[in-house]
Amino acid sequence: MTCKRLTGCLLAAAVALAAAPGWLPGSPGPAFAAEEEERKTRRVPTMTEATYKKLAEAQEFIDLKPPNVAAAIEVLDDMMKRSRRYNGNEIGQIYNMYAFCYYLQEDIPRAIKAYEMVLAQGEDIPEGLEVSTLDNLSKFHFIEENYAESLKYMQLWLAKATNPGPDAYIFMGQVYYQLQDFNNAIAQIERGISVARERGLIIRENWWQLLRYLHFELENWDEVINILEILVRDFPKRDYWLQLAGIYGQEGFEKKQIYTYEAAHVAGFINRGRDLVNYAGLMAQDQVPIRAAKALQQAIDDEIVEETERNLQSLGQYWQLAQETDRAIPIYEKAGDKAEEGEILSRLASLYLEKDRFEECVDAAERALEKGGLSKSYNTQVVQGQCEFNRDRLTSARRIFVAARGDARRERDRSVESICQRWIRYIDNESRRRRELAAAQ
After folding, report:
1. How far, in Å, are 141, 258, 277, 347 from residue 281 at the CA level?
2. pLDDT digits (tens, 9 = 90+) for 78-90
3. Would you say 189 and 210 are in contact if contact means Cβ atoms under 8 Å apart?
């Protein structure tokens, strides 16, 4: 996952959290309930009935479908014209409702300022309102990308919150991630997962995703593997299988890489062209070329993998390694037609020689030499010379071996030079034998 995409996911998560706090700002009923509860630990000024009625009037506008936020703000503005008559608790409740109205208008900066005014009332507001305000300030600063402020308010919230759930720690991990403090981000995410386990709660997929990303950035490959193993088990998806296979390969666990690809293939996740090409390549590396050939052949037949020169060359090689020469030949023929250089045609010539198809062998060798690009063209000439000899064209065969011997000598390839010399000697002896036989008749 790219950094940009991950940031977008984190912002979306923050918006979702901010949109669903434990108590929505602007609800006077819960505010009074919280006030009664908090009087046991904090003595706060009492809200008058007149203040309650005005807040309830603003709340009615908010509860409309759709909300009439402008009318609610107008009620609150009218209240603030007589702000001197209100105590700190009442002022805090008014600004709390302001913040909710601004939130509905998607005016996050003004919502933040309103929440700051709630906290400015100090211990005149119920502790429950203070805690929820700290939480909302942390979320809203995150949305505004004020990550240091978000961290500050979340730390204050954690210090006051009673038995926080896993979401709080996950959010802290997101904040630390944005601050590029990956180690603290990991610690918070892992703590959130631990709390969820202790409480028997569901551990969400996106928690593992973030944790995997953080360990990936720090190159903690063992941890990345552990997390990907969890993801393929609990949330089996194509990307997780392929990422796990890729990390296994990167870290030298070739067998595990192959088994992972195999499992993903059986599960139907290996269904894209590049994936199938890679899968076939791994099968070939694992010395099971017949499976590699069948997988790639099926992908080409199903038009998932394109018949490019490279793919056809690989397929021909797999059939050849599987000793399925008759199936390799037509594939090499197609690849050779598409190729700009002669290497594939040179291989094809060798297969024709193996199958005693000498005329086709000579033709393939000639085409290979014409196209060029051969690392050792004299090897192709040796094959061509053998096919000409088997066609009983001794003069042509000798000429080809002489040319190949000269090229090998210039390249100081003593082995091929020796092979050519033996063929030349053999052809000369055979020609002499035939002349003598003809003269004797």
Report:
1. 49, 10, 6, 19
2. 999 988 889 999 9
3. yes
Residue 134's nearest CA partner among 159, 109, 165, 110 is 159
* Contact status, residue 170 vs residue 192, Cβ threshold 8 Å: yes
Which ranges in 306-376 belong to alpha helices (H)?
309-321, 325-338, 343-354, 358-371
Length of the chain as a residue count: 441
CB 402, CB 383: distance < 8 Å: no
CA 166 vs. chain centroid, Å, equals: 26
| Angle value at C-alpha 287, between 283 and 291, nearest 5 degrees | 45
pTM over 0.90: no
For 368-380, the pLDDT digits (tens) are 999 999 989 999 9
**Residue 52 and residue 259: Cα distance in Å, rounded?**
67
How large is the angle between the packed helices 394-410 and 377-390, nearest 10 degrees? Answer: 160
Please give the single-letter amino acid code of residue 257.
Q
| Mean pLDDT across 307-336 | 92
pLDDT one-digit tens code per residue, 180-210: 999 999 999 999 999 999 999 999 999 999 9
Tell me, what amino acid is at 207? W
Options 1.25.40, 1.20.5, 3.80.10, 1.10.3710; CATH for 1-162 is 1.25.40
Q: Which two tokens stand for residue 282?
A: 């791994």
Type and span of the H or E element at 242 = helix 238-250
